[in-house]
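Student: Send me a single protein entry containing the residue sequence and its fold in token form, directly below this note:

Tutor:
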Amino acid sequence: MLTTAITRLLGIPHPVMLAPMDIVADARLTLAVSDAGGFGILGGGYGDPVWLERELQLLEEANAARQSLFGIGFITWSLAYRPHLLDRALLSKPSAIWLSFGDPAPFVDKISAAGVMLICQVQTVPMAKEAVAKGADIIVAQGTEAGGHGTSCGSIALTPAIVDAVADKVPVVMAGGIADGRGLAAALMLGAQGVALGTRFYASLEAAGRPEAKARIVSASGEETTRSTIFDISRRHIWPAPYTGRVLTNDHARKWTGRESTLLEQIEQEHEIYMAARSRGDYSIAAVIAGESAGLINDIPSAGNIVRRISAQADALLSRSVEPSPIA
């Protein structure tokens, strides 16, 4: 069994965290990851009050019978408009709150006063330093390989750079491009204390995604992803620079790549087309938010199987005695 600063801090057997994917990481998936010994994090995302209340109630009901450790994640900007959602989340007694993309400072005191740890996801070394200075207890270094929103630096370079910058103060978790035990072993060798997985858990039995979306992840290769603003424009949810979103490449992305300004000009019609496709599960138009690790995913097992399999693979790899190669 792998023991790291993250397993000790969170009180979990395996250094594997569920990335709080908006809507996809619901209560069922959160509990499945936590019950398997990882750390499940509910995907509060943009802060849909109705969805959040329903899922928090499910977590609370489950925890009345068993005390599962879990976290709750938000896109930080959403809390600026709905600060009461953080109050509601803290009533569920999570072990941690995960904040992404915005300034965590307005929420640090309330989270700390509740005795809850703060996880901050960052994409650069300066962002990591700033988050630690403002009170983060755990830093997630998100590389550009990850699905969903992010920036441009890859995990292999970003993770050790952030480790060098802040690991003397807080543990670092690696996110982006990881789907198996090789990725966890590599993350630990780079100085991270664990991994956060999104795409791999999306393709699990418990994830709140359509079967068609999960099947697309399984069939996709790593190069069949696109990082752009197209799906944000299409759903009328445009993010500020430098953030773009990585999704599986589809007909809609191919049609509009390089023609984003024209898409904006035609957004009244295209938004309706896009939202209708999303409602009916037409993923030739609607985006499947997934990262480059899709190329490593070949099945749709239970979340518990994923946690145990990745940890066992990494443990075996790190325990293996490797003879150094002779110098030529």
The mean pLDDT is 95. The chain has two domains: 5-209+297-319, 211-280.
